[in-house]
Amino acid sequence: MDNLSICNRCGSDACYVQEVNQDIKNYQCMGCGFVTNSFMKQGSQFFEEQMELLPNLYKELMGEDEEGLIWMPATINLPSQGMVFANGTSAENWNWAAVQSVPVKDEEKEKYPIPGKPGEYYEQRMDMDTLKEFGEKDFIEALDYIGIFEKPE
Ligand SMILES: [Zn+2]
Predict the structure, then answer these.
(1) How far is the C-alpha of 34 from the C-alpha of 111, rounded, in Å?
(2) How far is the CA of 8 from the centre of ligand 1 (A)?
(3) Rounded to the nearest whole angstrom, what is the distance from the C-alpha of residue 44 to the centroid of ligand 1?
(4) Nearest C-alpha neighbor of 40 from the set 65, 21, 60
(5) DSSP states of 112-148
(6) Is the pTM of this model over 0.70?
(7) Is there a contact between 88 and 68 (Cβ–Cβ < 8 Å)?
(8) Can you tell me whether residue 5 is helix, strand or coil?
(9) CA 20 to 30 Å from 141, out of 12, 34, 47, 130?
(10) Whether 84 contacts 142, CB under 8 Å
(11) Ligand 1 centre and the CA of 143: distance in Å?
């Protein structure tokens, strides 16, 4: 069941809340494109780990809401459809970027081996030529560009 609520970050009513259990919730706002979860708090181990892994831009864009949850830009990576991520040089200069996934052609499959699986190749690849940028408020449009809202055939 979709469980939409008001986003604590941007105030839109399109924040998708997934209740993993009583103590753990994931938040994905379709309005601003930011995410957080019950572990994203100052001083938590999860947060420290994220700080080691995340690109600088993501760290710069982070912000704490009134409940102490720290929000950061979403990273969408769907091998069969594409990717959406925050792209830019600083918190003052960034956009959403979307890249479409395309089928790997037979003649190029050797270039896309699946690591650890000799003789097997990816069927789809991210085509960086399709990279398109969207404004900070256009996260939904970026998702639309990689076909997330199209019904499966
Ligand atoms: Zn939001």
Answers:
(1) 34
(2) 7
(3) 22
(4) 65
(5) SBPTT-TT-B-SEEEEEEEEEEE-TT-HHHHHHHTTT
(6) yes
(7) no
(8) strand
(9) 47
(10) yes
(11) 15
